[in-house]
Amino acid sequence: MEGSWVVVGGEGRVGATNIGKLRQGKARGGVTSWNLRVFAGVVGFMGCLLLAASLLMSAVHQVQFRNGAISVNFRGLQELKQNFVRKEHVEQIMHGRLIQMATLATTKNESDSGSFALWEEPYKQARKWKPCAAKHSLADEVPGENNNGYVLISANGGLNQQRVAVCNAVVVAALLNATLVLPHFLYNSVWKDKSQFGDIYQEDYFVNYMKSDVRIVKDLPPHLQSLDLEAIGSQITDNDIMKEAEPSEFIRIALPVLRKNGVVHFLGFGNRLGFDSVPVHLQRLRCRCNFHALKFAPEIQKLGSLLVQRLRGVSEMQTEMDKQLFGGKMLGPASGEKKRADAGGPSRYLALHMRFEVDMVAYSLCEFGGGEEERRELHAFRETHFPALAARLRNTTVSPEELRSQGRCPLTPEEAGLILSALGYDHRTFTYVAGSQIYGGATRLRPLTRLYPNLVTKEDILSSDELAPLRNFSSRLAALDFIACASSDVFAVTDSGSQLSSLVSGYRVYHGRGRAPTLHPNRKRYAQILSEEGGIGWSGFQRRVRTMVEEYKRVRARPRGRTVYRQPRTPGCMCRAGGDGSIDF
Q1: Rounded to whole angstroms, how far apart are CA atoms 141 and 130?
Q2: pLDDT tens digits for 498-552?
Q3: Cβ proximity of 132 and 575 under 8 Å
Q4: 76, 437 in Cβ contact below 8 A?
């Protein structure tokens, strides 16, 4: 029994032990299996999260960078594009039907350009006109110190208004037989730039280039610096001389003061000198100044050269325009910098001057589809920056619709995009936008970027470190826009009344050798076309827009009353090829 028990017990103990081990093994195996299932679940959950995050980032990336043609280093317009993710629901579109048709037109594989010359000057007559203002207009002798005194100007406005004032001052100084003091630039509450002549232009080059025509000094002589020019009656404001006055007005008003006090100070000097009544030898002075004597400061030239090369994607090409803008050879690309053309991008670009900043929009008194919020915002801006205009509006009724029908409203980015679409530029067109502080930001810009996603600004092309020296100087930054627009393959204007558009257009005519096309819409005719958008198809809209733009491209001498800064095909500035310096009309 005992042995049996022992045996049984032994077997029992052994069996019990095996059973315990078996039970423990089963218990451990159950725990292990449960842990594996939990672990697999966690991994699967995390994988789903990672996949969702990846898809979300991919979607955001596509919204930000569209078809990948714009580098991820571009910042300016890309910051606006990031806002589209958040603001798509408040997108501002004024011409929805046309935008839909334009979107289809621009996304075709090849642009249907028809007979419209997208990248070339269509009229060969343009090549027959050559610059001729480099010839000295006065006697070969250098003007001496024995003259009627000193002309001092304090120019208002921004870069381009001041440029016009400088060249008009050269003419007035010659007209009055006086010495010109290097112009002083007034501080403007809108531009907020304290830059002076020497910060933007090369002083010595300017003085030396003009020395055979006008004596120019950097400062008044000591005995005149201490005078209160206003107190002695030597200060002449824009209220004293009418806009675009004839030379005889300066003889009548300024010459007696100059002879009496030895100095005359023109304060403001905004567009005070006319065009049609100026003798040819003085008109030539104007063009010598604008197209030859005013060279940007080396710092601006260096950055401008870098900007243009990155836009083109090439460094070997140097045009006549480059020589005028940059002087010597253009800079080579930075170390390790790849050419855009090598990366599959275009080597040519269109420059678009988008004149839709808040000051322009507010001053126009037009409405742009923003409703009551827009009206309140623009009213507040006028009260602060244009108090005289705001005061007049309190007693005057203005019709925004009538202003628009008269062509007095600046084009929106949406309307500019519609013009480019109608002309045949497809969605791949690489476009440089000047004047990039667009009123309304991302919501206002979106219709244009939908049509043309490859939009860049100087802030996109140049790094923050490269732009840092010019960061707080709007006029010097505007000089970069001037350079990029002048050097572009095609320059598109949205406001033909702006000084930058006017000066760049004229610069391209003068130095472009007939190979620098510029697109000028007629805002009045364009407003009429847009007013009928509900009843016209895309082909009709396209045909009318092309006709409007082509008419401006016709080559003709400067019409009466037009500025030589925009249209330099005039005696004293440009000559027909093969002539003796005169123009054969």
Answers
A1: 26
A2: 899 999 999 999 999 999 999 999 999 999 999 998 899 999 999 999 999 988 7
A3: yes
A4: no
